[in-house]
Amino acid sequence: MEGFWTRVFLRIWAVLILLFLFVPILLIFFYAFNTSNIETWPIPGLTTKWFVSTWNDENVRNALVVSLQAGLAATAIALVLGSCAAFAIHRARFFGREVISLLFVLPLALPGIITGIALNAFFSFNSISLSLATIVVGHTTFCIVVVYNNVLARLRRTQGSLIEAAMDLGANGFQTFRDVTLPLISTAVVAGSMLAFALSFDEVIVTTFTAGAQSTLPIWIFGQIRHGVLLPEVNVVVSFVILVTIIPVAVAARLTGGGASRVAGAR
Amino acid sequence: MRFGALAVAGVFVLTACGSSNSPATTTSQQPPTANMKPLTTIGPGEGQLNLVLWDGYADKSWVDPFTQQTGCKVTQHPAGSSDEMVSLMKDGGGGQWDMVSASGDADLRLIYGGDVRPMNVGLIPDWQNFGSFFKTPPYNTINGIHYGVSLQWGPNTLLYSTKKFPNKPTSWSVIYDPANKGLVTVPDNPIQIADAALYLSKTKPSLGIKDPYELTQTQFNAAVDLLKQQQPLIKHYWALATDEITLFQNGDVVVGAAWPYQTIQLKLAGAAVDETIPQEGATGWADTWMLATKAPHPNCAYLWDKWVSTPQVQAEQALSFGETPVNTKACAEMDSLGGGGSCAQYHADQTGASYFDTIKFWKTPLADCGNGQTNCVPYAQWVSAWTTIKG
Amino acid sequence: MAVETIERPRPKGGGAVPFSGVLWRFPWLRPLLLLTPPLLWFVVIYLASLVLLLITAFWTIDPFTTQIVQAWNLDNFRIIVTDSTYWSIIGRTTIIAALVTVTDAVLAFPFAYYMARVASRRVQTLLFAAVLLPLWASYLARVYAWILILNHSGLLNWSLQSVGLPAANIGYTNTAMWLVFSYIWLPFMIIPVYTALERVPESLLEAAADLGARRWRAIRDVVLPLVLPGVVAGSIFTFSLTLGDYITPILVGGASSNFIGNVVYANIGIANNIPFAAALTMVPVAIMAVYLTIAYRLGAFEAL
Fold first, then answer.
1. ipTM exceeding the 0.90 mark
2. Chain C CB contacts of B9 below 8 Å
């Protein structure tokens, strides 16, 4: 439907944007082979020694493990709480609904440093010492929002008539939920969880204020950027993470509607 | 709260009188942790040690043998400034941190804040070999109680590119010179105001600045104005040592204020740089390893301090960072590790005493001027002034 | 004639049946039960800590021991309002956040349009994955990679000079920050815009064409209004994430690149002046409150 020149223009633009997005990432891959630990252009030399040193570096492994633990815990809790909230807001009409909607947007809408220092003050006020648990609390707070948004968006697009039809056919509330609602929103739940996990995995600002002596991967990376001596190890680890997540990301893309059909008159 | 502040001010009066070589402080007001009994013996290591420290103070080359021998795995958290260290150590280290390598401007704040506890120097065999001043310096020993073990000391230097300055600069004026616009870097630290004050004490004697940390409002304003004039010349205020290293390596800056650590790292990477202490003198820092009140791993902490006080590790750290050890036996080790002349280069030998006197060591600016007047600018104002300087 | 009441067939099931009956009879019970756990979390943890922060803004610290003194006053706010440095910092932060938002919207729209309306189904999935992938490369590593590109002897200057152009020394400047922020948050803008564009039915555009509208007119009058909620939703992310960031200014910023986040961070982590930091954080909160209200009016919350 679009004109020929429009298509050409759009194609070129898309390529440029892709270049823009990926050139820094290619640099990250490339500099994992840097002989020097100071990043200068052009690259002084190539070596694979950093792969070995990263593999042997216990701090990296610990940081990865802590990040995974925090991410999984936060996503699991957020999954339950976020979905509950989405269901509640979707169907009900009650006083204060708008306020609660706004409340659930706050953790992402307010800058991370505010969430970070608020939680930090809260913990020290209540004499709760910082640990993995406090990191999880911080992450869960914004993960809930992500799951909530995704599930709510999907709920808005599902046809309520399906639910009513199921109940008319004799299913009780629980059966309806299990057999009709859940399959309809499953992809949104999965997509929301994956996005929540991604945000938790890469989160550094809130984590700085809610972690004690523990290091998540981003905190370890920030420490390495400060310290400088093992900088290429950062590139190795980040490259590894990117490669490992290509498949889950592709799956998520499929699920969330990359490639969803353009429904005529869907609204 | 007020009484405590007055008492500490009193302590500072005693320490601020004359040079930094004053004897150990005696005062009637005891720090909150004075009655905590230090360990009498070092027990088995707990397997973990969490340190708050300056970049480069726990290098692999002396951490790995330590971990092998004691089983204590080291987690380091580098801090960019003394304030950051004080902040991290609040509430006795929060039950997270074991030790902090604090400089003179943080020590008394930590001690009187109750964040560090007395240490038993008898458990550190090499303490006997420390230079006499460093055994009981006023910034970490109060009423005969040791709140830490001295570590190393050194100056803030002028780092410059030998390509741009084939002749060594002789004055700090190069970092205030508009000819170097966009090519200068200085630390992102409010204590920099003291460096400006030090420069003014020599270039504008009419201001009457004697101690760069005790400034009247007029003197303070003059220093702040100088730094505001400097701001357009600054490419980037470095917050991390690696910041500055990257800036010099990539040619973004050609001159700046630095620690010897950056010079050494840059030279190792083949950069054409060198450092110097200009004629106006330098500010500096004298560091102490202090034990957190709520340290979760005190045995590993003592084992660590024992280790870093040995001549071998003192020499390694001195050469790696570019500072001067407190252990007199380290001199010989430095010469054998770093080549003849290393000991003299870092003044670990008998020239140390006079060199020490030329450095204006970091200390916390207080309202008490130490000469009977109490109209000096306190540190909180330095912090807010720094924000206005940077813009 | 009497109306026969047909009994609802009794479904199988044990305890769940009377329970769902209860839910049917008291419709407000369900949202209440569902909402309580998340609401409890939010109120007890998140809201409580935000309120605590707000209260702290009205206190001060003892300048020597840096302990918080619970003496109610407005000093912190007074300092912020009267000192021009803070106005320039707040102004700089807001303006760059707005610039980044506009830049990302401009960059994202044609790309999202291509993805949603021109690309084949397979290319769509590929592009979607390609946009999500950078989010998995650490934010810190990506910003650090930009230092390499933008610094004095970096990739950008090297490329320019090898084709004979003069070096563009944008390393460690506000321009560098604008560029890096636009880069980092771009995926957050592309995804909502794409989702919104995807939902625009083809039939609407065909109808517009049938009514005689040219291509650009159709886009301007039909597509843009429908896509606006998506753009605004994306802008919430780009604006607020830039407004509160302090790490990129530390790494990539120059001498006059202090953001609100940097001053807050300096006061928390360094001066330990939590009351002042708390007072300063009220500024981005206020700004975001205004922004969110506008976004809500423009329907962005539906498009999140």
1. no
2. 64
pLDDT band at residue C147 using 50, 70 and 90 as cut-offs: confident
Those residues of chain A that have pLDDT short of 50 are: 258-267
**Which of A59, A215, A227 is nearest residue B55 as measured by Cβ atoms?**
A227
Size of interface A-C (CB pairs under 8 A): 312
In this prediction the pTM is 0.83
pLDDT at C215: 74
Per-domain residue ranges of chain B: 2-23+30-154+285-361, 156-283+373-390
Any idea which fold C84-303 has? Answer: MetI-like fold (1.10.3720)
CB nearest to A213's CB, from B50, B241, B265: B50
| Multiple choice CATH, A58-229, 1.10.3720.10, 2.40.10.480, 3.30.300.30, 1.20.1250.20 | 1.10.3720.10
Quote the CA–CA distance of C72 and C75 in Å, as a whole number: 9
- State the pLDDT at residue A78: 92
Write out the two tokens for B338: 């770093």
Summarised one tens digit per residue, pLDDT across range C277-290 is 888 888 888 898 88
Cross-chain residue pair C288–A91, CB shorter than 8 Å: no
Mutate to test the interface with B, among C252, C270, C272, C273 (most CBs of B within 10 A): C270
Q: Which is it for strands B73-78 and B48-53: parallel, antiparallel or unpaired?
A: parallel
Question: Domain locations in chain A?
Answer: 58-229
- CA of A113 vs chain C CAs: smallest distance (Å): 6
Nearest CB partner across the interface for A227, out of B78, B95, B246 = B78
* Min Cα–Cα distance to chain B from C127, Å: 35
Residue C63: pLDDT over 70: no
Contact A212 B96 (CB under 8 A): yes
**Above 90 in pLDDT, residue C191?**
no
The confidence score (pLDDT) of residue C270 equals 64
Q: Name the CA dihedral angle for A134, A137, A142, A145, rounded to a multiple of 10 degrees.
A: 180
- For residues B269 and B113, what is the distance between their CA atoms, to the nearest angstrom? 41
Q: How far apart are CA A45 and CA A36, in angstroms?
A: 7
The per-residue b/e assignment along C268-288, b for 16 or more CB within 10 angstroms, e otherwise, is bbbbbbbbbbbbbbbbbbebb
Average pLDDT of chain C, as a whole number:
83
Q: For chains A and B, count residue pairs whose Cβ atoms are closer than 8 Å.
A: 50
Q: Say how far apart CA B332 and CA B314 lie, in whole Å.
A: 11
Q: Does B239 touch chain C if contact means CB atoms closer than 8 Å?
A: yes
Residue B84 forms contact with C (CB below 8 Å): yes
| Closest CB from B78, B80, B94 relative to A212 | B94
CB contact under 8 A, C272 and B235: no
Under-70 pLDDT residues of chain B: 1-29
Residues of B in contact with A221 (CB under 8 A): none
Does residue C64 have a pLDDT over 90? Answer: no
* Burial classification of residue A131, based on how many CB atoms lie within 10 Å of its CB (0-12 exposed, 13-18 middle, 19 or more buried): middle
Residue owning tokens 């639910």: A163
Chain C residues with CB-CB distance to B under 8 A? 62-67, 69, 79, 83, 85-86, 88-89, 147, 151-154, 169, 171-172, 250, 253-256, 258, 263, 266-273
The CATH number that domain B2-23+30-154+285-361 falls under is 3.40.190.10
Quick check: A36 contacting B, CB < 8 Å? Answer: yes
